[in-house]
Every structure is written in structure tokens, then in C-alpha cells.
What does this fold into?
Amino acid sequence: MVTKPYVSDHYTPVPDEITAFDLPVRGALPPELHGRYLRNGHNPKPGITPTHWFKGSGMLHGVELAGGRARWYRNRWVRTPALDGAPLMREDGSLDLTASVAGTHVIEHGGRLLALQEANLPFEVTPELETVGAFDFAGKLTSAMTAHPKEDPVTGALYFFSYSPVPPYLTYLVADAKGDLVRAEMVDGAGPSLMHDFAITETKVIWLDLPVVFDPAEQSGIPYRWHDDYPARIGVMDRDGHTDVTWIDVEASAVLHTTNAYDGPDGTVVLEGPRYDRAGWETSWKWWAGLPGCPDVPVTGATATRWVLDPVHRTASRTELDYLSTDFPTINPTVLGRPSAFSYHAAFPGAGLHEYALVKLDTSTGERIVSPSGPGRQPGEAVFVPAENARSEDDGYLLTIVSDLRADASELLVLHARDLSLTAAVTLPRRVPSGIHGSWIPDARLG
Ligand SMILES: [Fe+2]
It folds into this structure.
């Protein structure tokens, strides 16, 4: 049997759950970091090889930092029905919203920790990563929830959505700062596209209705495929008003993740994110699904891109901001939806790089900093934590877990966001598989 790439090398699952205290630290952990770095990813149980990377059961890894010390590490599966083999579809063909692998992201909102995966309900977990159960906003959420909600940094409200392969294709959702679901409205005009992410500005919501669309013929278990005949459109909608969408035709693209979006001074809307063309998407998908001929290492055909959208004239212009192959973009969360200059990306081998790296882009100057990870080392998404009393957008830290195959080990790196220099590295008790998305949860947010 061919070993699937997403359960090999950096992605080899761990077989069990462990807890370790008082972890060794190289360098100096910033004493102002009081909280938890949590990261989600796919970690199927021993003996199970899912048909697609995204179908592996979710496992959370957490490190608690306080007072310059790394107090604990623990890893826990998210205990969903799917972990024990429950099918994602009921016998009548309908989707069971609790049958989630919950393996894409983990966030805090309203004091609650939620493990997310876009086809299902969120799963609440405790600050020690034990599963509480499916969370449906006190019965108000009756559809799936994206794994990429956006919290407004000023109001604390959470903006998110549900998408579906069958009508209604798109539902707009808003929870207030306390976590009460205050809005759930169908959005007209969207189609059955793979809408993994979206964006908000201070006044707008940006929808991505792009040509990777529902296709039941796709056999990998994730029934979506690129279709050239599907028109590529980006939608602009009032964030806090009615749900009429202005759809703007764009060049055929796939966008898994948005970096940021903001209102331009002239009525335009700026959107940034890694963009895939068809070839880049299909090569990436081959690895994600472990299809014959897939590359040995995960590649991404995406490059950092900016669209300037004009909702009045329904036009869009597109600029490639950098040619490196990157994804997993992050920003300082205090500028989400506001004009921003700095973004941080995981770079993949290819397009001039021979190994994995973290990259900082400065879109105000076009400059970039590349921090190669070293042979056999793969960093994940770099989560930005603002410094206390930060004086600039890039005054803060980046947190990421590195998988080191040569040493069969992992570290939690804490980098200065300004120049990507190392502040501290926490030695984790064993290698942590490369994963998906994570968050920094300050202790203050957990009461
Ligand atoms: Fe994602």
C-alpha cells in the first residue's frame, strides 16, 4: 500500500495524548506572554489512513506560557463522533453537523474555545483541551460554521458564515462580543464553491465565489474540483446593513485564505491573499488527496496577491505582491479589516526556495524578509501576538511550532515580528506533526 503523504514525514501522526510540565527554553521568553498557544491539525488515530488530508481527526496541541516560563505542553484529540468512526452523512443522505473531525482551526470567542472545521458545528474544548462537545450558540446555529471567522478588533463581534454544496449556498452569521448569535441571514447570488475563507473590512464583507466547486464525481472524499466553466467572482456586501451583494468578475483563481482586507479611500475595497491558478491548485490538491503522481513534499501553487475592487464600476485589478510559494498568511489581529502593511507567511520549497521558511512581506515598501527554517525543518503558520504597549504594526511576536525530522523533535518558536529574529525556543517533549491553524489565547480572555 502506498503511504499517503499527509500521514508521512512532517505529517506523521502521533499515536497518543501526553502532558508535560516545565519545558526547557532556549533564549528568553517574553515575560509579558501570559496565555496559551493552541494549534489544530489532522492526526488520524493509529491504523487509520483517511482518503484526504482534511478528513483526518483533529488534534489540538497547546503550550502555556507565563512569566517567562513554558508551564505545560499537552496534546488532545477533539473527541467528536467522527473520531470514533461515525459517518459524516446520515443514512438519509443528510449531513450530520456533529460528525466533524474538527481539525482545521482553534479560536477563542466570548471566553469559549472552539475547534473548527467548516462542514460542521464547532466543538467546544476546555482551556486544558478536553472536549466539551458540539457548540451551536444555544441552538441558534443550525448550519455549519467556517473555520475562518473574523473578530473585529474594536467591537469584539465575530463575523462568520456557513457554506453548503446545496442551497442555501451561503449564510451570513454574526455573534456579538459575548458570543450570542445575533444575525443569521441567507445571502443570495453565491454558488456551490469551496468557500474556505472570506474577509471583512470596517464596513464590508468580501465573498469568494471561485471556480473550485462542488463536484460529486471527485473521489478523494472532499467533493470539490476546479471547473473552468464556473465564473470567478468576488462579492462585496455591507457588513452591517442589507445582504445585497455586488459581484465582480475576476480572473479564474482559487483562494484558500485571505490575508486582510480594508476600505480604500476612494470607495474601493482592497483584498489580499495567496492566489492559486489552476495548475497550482491541482498540484496542491494532488498532495492533499495523496493522488498518484503527487509531489513528495507539500507544495503550494499560491502567491501573495492584492485585488483592488471597485463595487461602483464592478471592476477589479490584481497585483502579485511576491513570487514565492506561500500560504497560511497572518497579520497583527489589531489591524484586521483596517489598512495594514505587514503580513507573515509560511513559504514552501519552490519558486527559488529549497527549504521551508517564514516570510514577512512589507507591502508599503515591497520589501520582504525570508527566514529559512534549516534542512529537515518545517514551520507552521506564524501566529502574531502584539507586544504590550505596541508602538507599531509589527511590534510583537510570532509563534509557530517547527517539526524537525532530523532531530525527531519539535520546538515552539517565539520570533520578533519586526525582523524574524529568534527570541526563544521552547523544547516540546516530542515531535509535533505539521498541522493547520492556531491561535494565541491570552489568559485574560479565559476569565
Ligand atoms: Fe484554512
